[in-house]
Task: structure prediction
Amino acid sequence: MYVKRMKIGIGILMTLILLLAGRIILMDVLAAADSEIAKQVKSSGSNVPSNVLKVTACYSLMADRAAVRVSVEGKYKTDTMLYVPGKVTSVKDAAWNQAEKVGKDGRFFVSKKGTYSILVLDSKGNAKITTVSVKMEMRAVWIYFSEMQNQAESLAKWKKFIDTTYATCKRNYINTVILQVRPCADAMYPSDYFPWSFYAAGKAGKNPGFDPLAYAVEAAHEQGLSIQAWVNPYRVTMSTTKLSSLPKGSVARRWASSKGKKRNVLSVNGALYFNPARNAVQELVAKGVKEIVKKYDVDGIHLDDYFYPSLGTANNKKFDYREYISYAARQRKAGNSVKSLVGWRRSNVDSMVRKVYAAVKAVDKNCLFGISPAGNIDNLYSRTSYYSDVKKWMKNPGYIDYICPQLYWSFTQHVAPYKKLLDEWASLPRNKNVNLYIGLAGYRAGISLREAKALSDTGWAKSNTILKRQVQYGRKSGEVTGFFIFSYSTYENKNAKKEVKNMNKLFAR
Result:
């Protein structure tokens, strides 16, 4: 028995020795590899000025990690890009021995908040270090068409607007801007599918002589901001049904004037909309989004709450009802079951959402696609409006990367109080790859009692800590990982100053 135990003991000892030897050899190999990296870094000289090598970094949030995007401008070809956790300011720091390589697409991924240092070496041995502070919380602001009006009359004016806007965002701890680039079947960029927006040069269809979106994307990344392109999928006009109000090159005008495609554009409630039931419309929306992701280095595509217009009982069996009758007839002829009108309309929106998601991911799998629906879930499942099956989108893969309901009510609103609605959204089953963000009503901060009464929400006039408490409650839920502020004008509104200051005390941490 003693001899047997001795043999077992010797066997264990030999195994440990072999494992230790293997570990030493492996460490030697790694050390050699790291030494080559360190040698390359240390021989590169000083941290050169930006006119020789310029490096910027921003990040966007995925389901459980952050995607850090590194942008490089320089006179010479980029040779190496490395990153390490923590703040490292010298190219000779030993921390670079443990550096990881940035991906060929200029991205790397992290799962923890904190500061990360990035080192870029060019082919001439010039080095540049920059840092990025990653917060695992989305802090976004919507910049909508009205706020951009008349700002793109010239490149100089647009640059000033964008630079000032982004600087304000940075001061207020925002890390993502949601820029509206297609308000009404138009574009704030040169497009193969849509005419120039009225908000670009002050006249629909007029070329401003430069590309507003190109500069907006470039400037965002230079200032360390993530940027998402905000698109309205169906709206053609807001307050007119006159086709003559549309530019001659407008696809909506062409379709509405064509006998075979006339049903692609419909009139309801004094405005024009693309017909959600038509496959050509769904394809147009998807192609338009794909064009953006291909041409611009955007970090995401964003849709808001404008899907089907509010039809009410008066228009419920109008609008796209003719297409429903045709669909039902085809189904019956084929011996298939027929969806209800409500189910069919929801399936039309579902189809568009899936196509947009697929279009985004076909170009850039790391580009986000999210939707910001109205905040009252019951309204979304109305029989006469929206037709937005958010529960399906949140639960199943292939629809969205995030959902951001617009919870624009105070804690004391009697029909839709903030706490109740947030709890409802947080309780919905959600795919592991879908983040839940909350849209907050910055535009209501600091309003008067008269204004609050008109909104049936007097809570906004009785406190200057609502936004702060809404962020706190969202964080406390354990389900919410970010907040969107509607809209940028909140930061220019003197009456909202106290609310914003109190909210920023949380964001500054």
